[in-house]
Amino acid sequence: MTRSIWKSTDPKNNFPSLNEHINTEIAIIGGGITGVTTAYLLAKSGKKVVLLEAGTISGGTTGDSTGNLYAMVDKRLHHIQSKWDEETAANVARSRGEAVDLVEELVNKYQIDCSFKRVPWYLFSETDQKDETIEKEIAAAANYRLKVEELQELPVPVKVSKAIKVEGQAQFNPAAFVRGLAEKIDDGNCQIYENSEVYHIQKEEELVLSTITGTVTAKKVILATHTPKGIYGLQTALYPYREYAIAAKLNSGDFPDGIYWDTEADFHTSMRTYSKGGDNFVLVLGGHHKVGQEDDYSRFFRKLEQQARKYFDVSEISYEWSAQHYKPADGLPYIGESSDDNIYIATGFSTDGLTYGVLSAMILDDLLNGRKNEWSDLYKASRFTPVKSAKNFINENLNVAKQYIKDLPGKAEAGSFDEIAAGQGKVVEVDNEKWAVFKDDTGQVHCQSAVCTHMDCIVDWNDAEKSWDCPCHGSRFKATGEVIEGPAFSPLDKRSMNPKK
Ligand code: FES
């Protein structure tokens, strides 16, 4: 089982699940950093809010994130500058910096026990081939009034050719922060429900959200679900990827805190340090592939372990996990009102989601309170940027088209259930239909249709996470078919086992 270091501590307080009908002004779906921070700000401003989380607060992507907060971006500020312009890149850095400031303010205000600290961010090249990237980022960061320094060595044992250091970024335990903040939300204005998965949104005069045991009627709905639930045209501009992480316990070495990113194109990694229970860890994150489009998912963990052992005195790999992110076509997230009236979205954060999640909350709070927000036009969800989006849009949507074509009849992974090992899943063709078949550790077989309930792509078995992952828009399902994440609302359709197979 994979599990992130942040999810290794059970939450102290649980919230109830929804068992009634409620009317409210604003319903938020999703209890990660975006949903909880938005709920906090809206409740503070007097709005009546209901937050529905399918699992537990911070139990989704937030709990699988890095715990890094920074003004910089994964794509690099100098790329934003060349794709857009200097003003846009400056606004990205400024807006993200304000989001990090808000996290610090909330941690201090409520004394949230989440190991928040300001740390430097580093980007380094291991060979001089990437020095130019470093030089461009130094120039861009300096331009945007970030406190920048050029270095020839790092405070961790990684040999570098050149590095940039930006002071004043931050790290924390993201799950502890989100849970801590959820407990501080004004409960006179906001009700939080866990284990309350929304499986349908009905558009009537108002919006009606259904869970198995209750409903919420709201004037406005915020989909703080990482990617919008349901079918939206915007999904052609959002590309789902997975990234991997390990937490390696160290035998020796006590390294200064910091966010360390390399510039390797083949296997880009980021590192950070973390202390827990008297042990020092280094977290190494990297590997990167389209969701549902790998043959061997576990290989990424092995590669990260090699990276960790190359530089550090590692005692054991204590945690392994992976997380999803959605790349936006034009390089910037989509935050604001969607193409559906009264439904708001916050998505396309790439791997910079913790900071963008908080920034989304700030923008949505202003929009829903009728206040002007300095950044809302920059990240507007309905923007149309064909020139800036064209390259990614064409390549990524060709890739989606290929996923549909490659799953034509006759291309199953196994001819019979006997070919499936215990603990594994395979797509099997049964009576001209693709089935997603999982054999559990006791040998019991679980059968469901392999057709994704979002838009009918065929799902792929993920051997690292024991899940069915859709290669088209990133929906993921448990081995037994229930939705984990992504735009799909419904589980995979159950099938009865065919004795002949
Ligand atoms: Fe869209 Fe599966 S996520 S078809």
UniProtKB/TrEMBL annotation:
<dbReference type="InterPro" id="IPR005805">
    <property type="entry name" value="Rieske_Fe-S_prot_C"/>
</dbReference>
<feature type="domain" description="Rieske">
    <location>
        <begin position="412"/>
        <end position="501"/>
    </location>
</feature>
<protein>
    <submittedName>
        <fullName>FAD-dependent oxidoreductase</fullName>
    </submittedName>
</protein>
<keyword id="KW-0479">Metal-binding</keyword>
<dbReference type="Pfam" id="PF00355">
    <property type="entry name" value="Rieske"/>
</dbReference>
<dbReference type="InterPro" id="IPR036922">
    <property type="entry name" value="Rieske_2Fe-2S_sf"/>
</dbReference>
<keyword id="KW-1015">Disulfide bond</keyword>
<dbReference type="InterPro" id="IPR017941">
    <property type="entry name" value="Rieske_2Fe-2S"/>
</dbReference>
<keyword id="KW-0001">2Fe-2S</keyword>
<keyword id="KW-0411">Iron-sulfur</keyword>
<dbReference type="InterPro" id="IPR038010">
    <property type="entry name" value="YhfW_C"/>
</dbReference>
<dbReference type="Pfam" id="PF01266">
    <property type="entry name" value="DAO"/>
</dbReference>
<dbReference type="InterPro" id="IPR036188">
    <property type="entry name" value="FAD/NAD-bd_sf"/>
</dbReference>
<dbReference type="InterPro" id="IPR006076">
    <property type="entry name" value="FAD-dep_OxRdtase"/>
</dbReference>
<keyword id="KW-0408">Iron</keyword>
